[in-house]
Amino acid sequence: MPIAEEISEATLARARSQGDAGEAWLRQLPLRYAELCARWQLTPGPAVVGGSASFVRRVTRRDGSAAVLRISLPDPSFAQRLATLRAADGHGYVRVLEADTDALLLESLGESLAVTTTDIDRVVRVASSLLTEAWLAPEATGLGIPEQDGAVVGLLALIETELGRITVPVPVDLVEHAKALLAERQRAWDPTKSVVVHGDPHADNILAAPPRPGAVGGYVLIDPDGFVADPAYDLGVLLRGWSDHLVAADDPAAEIDRWCAIAAEHTGVDPEAIQQWAFIERVTTGLHLLGLGLHDLGRSFLAPAAAVRP
């Protein structure tokens, strides 16, 4: 099968959205793939389903061990992602076996936590415990400690950008409350407690790992963003999901309270900060999706927001 037919639809769409750079990546991918297989002595295996920013394929190494080859789309943050994985050295994260400027050879992993369980409380427990293993001191990856929380700055900018391009009504009161909470999180910013966060630790980015040091509860994280922020930010990202569950719940606020308590118990992070970040992430993710024209998905994130407003 031609490589072009093995690229996920999401990756293909993202490549084409990058214009000339993305089209060049698509043209050069077969040659690049062959080059990496030859250099690292890999036998090609099946393509991996999913992913939105890289070509991913299972391979076999010269010694017969299984691995996964990822060739990234043009991405200015690739070097920082790699630095995060290397600094972690398998603690909380997938192990890097080989690396180049745009490609990673990674240990072979199993199914995601999203596939193996529907128990939300269990997902929160596993993810929270895993994050405490994965969080790094900023100096470990060569990052300095910023004067402001990078997540706060980025999300305030995102809100303004998305409000400028959204063509459907938005819940102004929820947006204003999210902005107020961002201001509160900035006031609470303590650089001495900052860490290199994963940035997107949802259950699809938590995969089963073989028994080894650094694999917490049999799982590790993949695909870190790797920037400096409040550790509560990662937990807020984790808890922004499960909208359908919250909408159907008799007491959505009690559900969020319980998840925040579980996350706090396993990390030592302030549950109020976690809850604030979860609300901020729910609203900003909804706005971003509305801005992309994904109106139904965007509204699904916003639907329970009023009921879980901290």
From TrEMBL:
UniProt signal peptide: none
InterPro entries xref list: Kinase-like_dom_sf (IPR011009), NH2Glyco/OHUrea_AB-resist_kin (IPR006748)
Gene Ontology biological process terms in this record: secondary metabolic process
GO molecular function, one term: phosphotransferase activity, alcohol group as acceptor
Organism listed in the record: Metallococcus carri
Name by which UniProt lists this protein: Phosphotransferase
UniProt-listed Pfam families: APH_6_hur
